[in-house]
């Protein structure tokens, strides 16, 4: 299928590429053939050509490609939130959508020590006096 998509169906019968061990033995030649084909086409053209003949294919995507992706943005995968130190930042969300709970990123990344008092008080049960004593002893940031 790949050979046909490349416009070189004769390669399917080429003994250099008949088995994995032969392809490995002729890896440089195979890479040259693939490079010659792929450099003449846009990555999306190659993707659609391969998919049309049944080859599972998708182009490599950079972080910028993903951040600009219409589908990911359309389903709310990315969340852009303001951060007090670095301005608006793009955060990746979760790849699924929950029906009975909140989805995605709800807050910017915390600052160092931002939730210390909250965790000590609400999770560990410390009193305000306990927290003040820890701060006075320079145990906390």
What's the quick description here?
By secondary structure, this protein is mostly helical.
Features:
single chain; 141 residues; 2 strands; 9% strand
General shape: elongated
Biggest sheet descriptor: 2 strands, antiparallel
**Unreliably modeled segments:** none
**Kindly, what is the distance between the CA atoms of the first and last residues, rounded to a whole number of angstroms?**
61 Å
How much helix is in the residues? Answer: 40-55%
The class by helix and strand makeup works out as: mainly alpha
How many domains, as an integer?
Answer: 3
Description:
The chain has 141 residues and is mainly alpha-helical. The chain has three domains: 2-52, no CATH class; 61-109, no CATH class; 110-141, no CATH class. It has helices at residues 2-5, 20-25, 27-38, 43-52, 63-67, 70-74, 116-123, 128-136; strands at 78-83, 87-92. A two-stranded antiparallel ribbon has the order 1-2. A hairpin with a 3-residue loop joins strand 1 and strand 2 (87-92). It is elongated and about 80 Å long.
């Amino acid at each position: 299928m790949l050979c046909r998509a490349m416009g070189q169906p004769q390669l399917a019968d080429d003994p250099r590429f008949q088995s994995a061990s032969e392809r490995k033995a002729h890896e440089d030649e195979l890479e040259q053939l693939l490079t010659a084909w792929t450099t003449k086409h846009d990555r999306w053209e190659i993707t659609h050509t391969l998919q049309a003949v049944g080859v599972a294919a998708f182009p490599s995507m950079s972080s910028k490609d993903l951040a600009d992706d219409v589908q990911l943005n359309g389903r709310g995968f990315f969340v852009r939130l303001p951060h007090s130190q670095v301005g608006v930042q793009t955060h990746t969300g979760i790849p699924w959508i929950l029906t009975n709970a909140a989805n995605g990123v709800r807050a910017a990344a915390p600052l160092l020590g931002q939730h210390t008092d909250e965790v000590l008080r609400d999770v560990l049960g410390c009193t305000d006096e306990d927290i003040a004593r820890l701060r006075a002893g320079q145990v906390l940031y």
